[in-house]
Specification:
The chain has about 140 residues and is mainly β. The chain contains one helix and eight strands. A hairpin with a 2-residue loop joins strand 4 and strand 5.
Length: about 140
């Protein structure tokens, strides 16, 4: 009788272990859905404008200076960074960005605390007046 119980317990254990084993096919990681944030604004002489955004997962962040007006050949400063306190700390910056310029970086964690900044580098004068701009940020 004791042997019968041992066999029963052993068979149950084997069945449980076999049931826990599944397919040997590895699972494919899911690619996060990309989100595009669009920021627009007006940039004054010697000014700068910061826009904050949140990403949903780790991955690549790409910020593009989509438009600059009234003259798309004029340069502005353009940076991508992280928010520290109340400031946008640049991780990547281009002090001579023109329309269609992109900055791209990888984020190890999702969450809030990311920023993009557009700033005057001396291109805006009393004669030119303020510039308008559009920035798009694509991220997970």
């Amino acid at each position: 009788m004791r042997r019968l119980r041992v066999r029963g317990v052993l068979l149950c254990a084997i069945a449980a272990l076999a049931g826990a084993c599944g397919s040997t096919t590895p699972t494919t990681p899911t690619t996060p859905t990309l989100v595009t944030d669009t920021f627009t604004g007006t940039l004054a002489q010697n000014g700068g404008v910061t826009h904050q955004f949140t990403i949903g997962a780790a991955g690549t962040i790409t910020a593009t200076l989509t438009s600059v007006g009234p003259d798309s050949t004029k340069t502005v400063g353009f940076s991508l960074g992280i928010v520290i306190g109340t400031a946008c700390q640049a991780v990547l910056a281009n002090d001579a960005a023109v329309q269609t310029k992109s900055l791209s970086s990888s984020a190890q964690l999702g969450g809030s605390g990311f920023c993009v900044r557009v700033y005057d580098v001396g291109s805006i004068t009393a004669d030119t007046g303020p510039f308008t701009y559009t920035v798009t940020v694509t991220h997970p």
